[in-house]
Amino acid sequence: MSTKITPATLQRMKQRGEKIAALTAYDYPMAKLLDECGVPLLLVGDSLGMVVLGYPNTTLVSMAEMEHHTRAAARAKTNALLGADLPFHSYETSDQAVANARRLIAAGAEYVKAEGGRDILPQIRAIVAAGVPFIGHLGMLPQHVLEEGGKYRIKGRDDVGHAKLLADAAALAEAGAFAVVLELVVPFVAQEITAQFPFATIGIGSGRHCDGQILVTPDLLGTYPWFTPKFVQPKLQAAVQMRTAVQEWRAAL
Ligand code: KIV
Q: Which of 92, 153, 204, 238 is deepest in the core (most CB within 10 A)?
């Protein structure tokens, strides 16, 4: 029988140099399946806005939607550490951040994640002080994609971007984040952050040298075939097989 994964387990994996696999799960069957595969870290990501709910980006996802999907995934009672994203505009103040983090915990999340560094430091401190385990998210912040002209841009290319990432990472370490997602960060900066800070770094499109890697599961499995990020190499084209299965069933009616 596998043992329950905790934030301390992930810290030990970092210390041992054991790679941390992380994937998104938005419902009961996917959380259960990924848990059965031994994936130690699961996230009910607000990417569900795009790959499940059909929104153009993650900015429209509501707390109620995050709670609904978190409840579904949490019913799988995983050994994996299962957490959820605080959606856009749900952590504008410290009080609001703590109240909404508690709502996600009540829905079954074991940690929460929010996007940003020094700009949301009071909120992160308040969440951690309330006893809620916290994962940070630096680099490309999808909740701010509209401010970036709708483009998902790589971060840390120039000296200013590099210094900003290091300062934000230092703030997250000081605030007590046990892990930090690094999204679309230049690989050498992701490597530097991984070496310099105690939290586990979980990369997405940020090179090989993070402590772990996360993917949006539909990108890995090919269940959302209309868009796949450039850095993902899908392991399955499930949509192709699904279409074939449906067409074969229909033709045999
Ligand atoms: O929303 C999400 O799924 C995420 C991961 C891509 C890290 O934030």
A: 204
Summarize pLDDT for 50-60 with one digit per residue, the tens: 999 999 999 99
Report the nearest atom of ligand 1 relative to the CA of 113.
8
Contact between residue 11 and residue 200 where contact means Cβ atoms under 8 Å apart: yes
For residues 181-188, give the mean pLDDT. Answer: 98
Best CATH choice for the domain 7-215 from the list 1.10.760.10, 3.90.850.10, 3.20.20.60, 3.30.1490.20? 3.20.20.60
8 Å CB contact between 52 and 69 = yes
Span 209-226, pLDDT tens digits: 999 999 999 999 999 999
User: Domain ranges in the chain?
Assistant: 7-215
The yes-or-no verdict on residue 241 having pLDDT over 80 is yes
Range 151-167 average pLDDT = 96
Q: What is the mean pLDDT of the chain?
A: 97
Burial of residue 187 (CB within 10 Å: 0-12, 13-18, 19+) is middle
Query: Using CA of residue 177, residue 183, residue 189, residue 191, what is the dihedral sign?
Result: positive
Pocket of ligand 1 (CB under 6 A): 24, 43, 45-47, 85, 181, 204, 214, 216
Catalytic residue among 65, 67, 183, 192: 183
Residue 31 in this model has a pLDDT that exceeds 70: yes
- 183 catalytic? Reply is yes
The structure tokens 């916290």 sit at: 134
